[in-house]
Write a structure and sequence with these properties.
The protein is mostly helical. It has 6 helices and no strands.
């Protein structure tokens, strides 16, 4: 996790990538991500829009076959519940936080 936690604040990257989004919208999305992974709130802006969710997951669980805490399932379920979107239908191995955030910005079909 060190590679994520030791870098500078990613707030600038979020605002640059999503200038139409308010800071509170970005914070709310990142809080859902943090909660799903059981991360501390102070880590919120350690994660960049370009971070791949699976890279974060693998940093947390580097060994194959290591039991996990169902973080990915929690993340998908929480995003789908909060934003009324189908995350699981668009899931990819290389999905980024920006990809997920973009889905939360679309109106529900």
């Amino acid at each position: 996790m060190r590679r994520f936690l030791e870098r500078g604040c990613a707030g600038y990257h979020w605002r640059r990538r999503f200038p139409e989004a308010s800071k509170s919208e970005i914070r709310e999305f990142l809080d859902i991500f943090l909660d799903a992974f059981g991360f501390k709130q102070r880590w919120r802006l350690c994660f960049s829009p370009e971070d791949r969710v699976m890279d974060v997951y693998r940093a947390l669980y580097p060994g194959r076959g290591t039991p996990d805490g169902m973080e990915l399932e929690s993340l998908v379920g929480d995003l789908e519940k909060r934003y009324q979107v189908n995350i699981i239908g668009s899931w990819r191995e290389d999905i980024t936080l920006a990809d997920l955030f973009l889905q939360t910005r679309r109106p529900a079909a």
